[in-house]
Amino acid sequence: MKHLEKITFPADLRQLKTADLPQLAKEIRAFIIDIVAAKEGHLGASLGVVELTIALHYVYNTPIDKLIWDVGHQAYVHKILTGRKNLFETNRQMGGISGFPNRSESEYDDFGTGHSSTSISAILGMALASKIKGNNERQHIAVIGDASIASGMAFEGLNHAGVTDTNVLIILNDNAIGIDPSVGALKKYLTNVKKGTAKEENIFECLNFAYSGPIDGHDIPVLIAELERLKTVKGPKLLHIITTKGKGLLQAETDQVTYHAPGKFDKLTGDLIPKPTREGPPKYQDVFGYSIVELALNNKNIIGITPAMPTGSSLKYMMEQIPERAFDVGIAEQHAVTMAAGMAIEGLVPFCNIYSTFLQRAYDQVIHDVALQKLPVIFCLDRAGLVGQDGATHHGVYDIAYLRCIPNMIIFAPMNEVELRNIMFTAQLGLEGPIAIRYPRGRGVSLNWQQPFQKITIGTAVELQKGTKIAVLSLGHIGNSVSELLKDFDSSKKIGHYNIRFVKPLDEKMLEMILKEYEHIITIEDGSKIGGMGSAVLEFANRLGSNKKIKIFGIDDTFIEHGTVEELQAMCHIDVLSLKNYINELY
Ligand SMILES: Cc1ncc(C[n+]2csc(CCOP(=O)(O)OP(=O)(O)O)c2C)c(N)n1
Ligand SMILES: CC(=O)[C@@H](O)[C@H](O)COP(=O)(O)O
Ligand SMILES: [Mg+2]
């Protein structure tokens, strides 16, 4: 690490000779591989931009010049070169640095990212601000991937930037893959550009950008020369670079999907380190993936839709088996929702699988295109609740609050795999409006999950244990921890446990009984307290004129950073211990 050890900030990097930079690139790759192999995180994207990041900080006067990393999962090199080399081993851990650029972490992180396709709008905002303030010297750069630039929001930014005379440089980092292979007509176009077979007019030139490339994004001298040239070109510019995701680690280059975020691996061989084998329950994702195939084989109207997450959501099983009815639409959550609306109008049964956090981007489409028109779109909200190391940008903790206020919307959270399957079965039988089914990242609880489908009556909760004094009302998977905890309490049957499962419509009959019969009511959920299930229960109790004390366990009015799910649950006091302590006070 003869060069890297001398670098703390970009000013140190700028002391190196250009000829030393390829060696520095090697050292940075080894450094990232060494740490990510043990600590986990996003790998392939950062390995692909080592040379680009070095060149950018070498040529530009960061942090005076502004630099935004779209999505931000590829910013590890940037972090290492901007004062966080010694903190890098804390990446994504509780109390450690974030896996994404974060303005509160460094003056070099010009914009917080995590959700894709925001970089062009953000950098344009900064470039326009420079103009308005009369600063004509500052440079403004956004780096965006080939999958992220295909999103609607990126196009909105390009469309505007093209008619400004701002000093913006968009670097299109084209590695021909997102998490899964990139899709769509733009991907085909970019492939043609690289092969030299594209139609004569260049799409970016047509949008009024000075286009250059494609150039080799791993050739540092070429990159530096082009960036130096572009510094002198006025107006909006787009530089198209070609890189290899996972560059420098054979397995990561070969199996780019797995090595996007591979978990632990052997830093020398690159081989994945298998998780300790434990015959365990399946992941909710796989239950979704297998069940939609099972249902779709019987119901020819079923469609599967994912915006760019076929592997993460397990919709890939349907894409493999029934490709004509399963669509990866790219990073296009808004389009996914409205396309599902169109299909529902035609009598199809669309299952639109979107991570809870990413559905935030399609909020208006959920209201205006789906709910207002009472269309039976089935939203499967994956990664609901606290997701762990991805942190504040990715926790799926707002969905209940933002969906509950929408008329016509049914909201369901399965407590286990069987409930997930049964609600999917129920939903495809036909509903009069949309339903959102929210479930967490990771494993469920049932080994015997592949049971025959059974219809669930909409708006019914389940009494899991009858009690006399304290009622615990849980929503979704967290209810399993409650069940476990209640085994610790004596058999006097003071505590009742209810699986609420439908946040909307609530099981009012059951709630009325609970409010009447119990002295204390506790609600627990892995979502925001404001507007969540507990709130719904409080509102109902108020309508009923009940004066029972209702204690809400949920996530406070603050953003939750990164850590393991267990650490974060404890921090948010929605863990077993916090609940136990509270029950002990009442007992
Ligand atoms: C709005 C949104 N949808 C989905 C994702 C999940 N996601 C993270 S990275 C990624 C692929 C990005 O691909 P690309 O822009 O080509 O960058 P690369 O990983 O190839 O560097 C996706 C779909 C996200 N972060 N934000
Ligand atoms: C950067 C990004 O948004 C994705 O890579 C995300 O981290 C995937 O999350 P899962 O690992 O839960 O699929
Ligand atoms: Mg890409």
- What proportion of the residues form beta strands (DSSP E)? 15-25%
- Unreliable stretches (pLDDT < 50, length at least 5) are none
How many helical stretches? 24
CATH architecture of the largest domain: 3-Layer(aba) Sandwich
Q: Compute the number of strand runs.
A: 17
Find the CATH topology of the largest domain.
Rossmann fold
Count of separate structural domains: 3
CATH class group of the largest domain: Alpha Beta
* Helix content estimate: 25-40%
Shape: globular
The main sheet orders its strands as: 7-6-8-9-11-10-15
Over the alpha carbons, how many angstroms does the gyration radius reach?
26 Å
Bound molecules: thiamine diphosphate, 1-deoxy-D-xylulose-5-phosphate, magnesium ion
Domain Transketolase-like pyrimidine-binding: 282-447
Catalytic activity: D-glyceraldehyde 3-phosphate + pyruvate + H(+) = 1-deoxy-D-xylulose 5-phosphate + CO2
GO molecular function, one term: 1-deoxy-D-xylulose-5-phosphate synthase activity
Binding site for thiamine diphosphate: 73, 114-116, 147-148, 175, 333
